[in-house]
Amino acid sequence: MRIAVVIPAFNVGAFLPDALRSVLGQTHTDWSMVVVDDGSTDETAVVAAGFSDPRIRLIRQDNCGVSAARNRGIAAFLDDTAAFSSTAPDAFLFLDGDDRLAPDALDCLDAALEMAPWAAIACGRYARVDAAGSSPPRLAAPPPTGCLLERLLTGNLFANGGHLLIRREAIEAAGRFRTDLYYGEDWEYWTRVALLGEFVAAQSRRPVLFVRERPGGTYCSNATNPAAYRPAMAAIFSNPALINRLGIGGMARLRQRAEAEMAWSVGRELIRQGQRRLGQHWLGRSVWTAPSPKRLALMGFSWLQSGPFRPYGTAG
Description:
Helix content: 40-55%
Number of strands: 11
CATH class of the largest domain: Alpha Beta
Order of helices and strands: EHEHEHEEHEEEHEHHEEHHHHH
Strand order of the largest sheet: 3-2-1-4-9-6-10
Strand content: 15-25%
Number of helices: 12
Shape: globular
CATH superfamily of the largest domain: Spore Coat Polysaccharide Biosynthesis Protein SpsA, Chain A
Number of domains: 2
């Protein structure tokens, strides 16, 4: 399977070498990569240009946001195949410029997708690491599989696109990332892909992706702000294709659950960033909106700032 790797990169010059080396070190060698420098003001473009492998192409653009950068990468493969070869890729992986892949990531995801011709996406496990990469990786739960449409409508099930391998046909049918969304744009995109087919999990129990937790990164900067979630949620729940599939009543029920999920995420991240009182308010709001015995029990950990409420930069 020929794999296209798209890396949107904005001011990640300090971390980009790890990302690029992780792709160069893949056991699966039939890949090509586009690094889209989205108007960086640091050494991002210089770093990318320093890797001379013919499978790597650097594109520079004015700062337009991560969705526009990903779309530019998609276009480089689907609209300008002569840039690499005359053959379009079979699948896409979107790797953030500050993350890195495990050496067998592409092989694991490729094998899963090849064994499930009905699936639109293969997904693997991921692990979180601190900004310096010095703490032991914290392995996330195994990825969900099957028809995930309704589960995705209540919240993003994935760290980012770095542990997802998406068939080219699904990319073509789903269209491009929405450039009017600055946060949750990947969540909105996964819901559109979920309309097209199932998700299948890689067989490996090891992580295929290592997600770098940076206090100044996009996630940490927006995850405590309820307003940051609203545009993506509005886009998802106004999608005519989703309304036709699930009906107005079904969408209303799922939106209530999505609101509860959003409140829980805001509360958790507030506590992780040191605002325990405000965070517990949002946790309580989540449980009130959609009662859950499991989450009610988990609230006890918020007082200890342990488990899912562990502060950034501390051991898991």
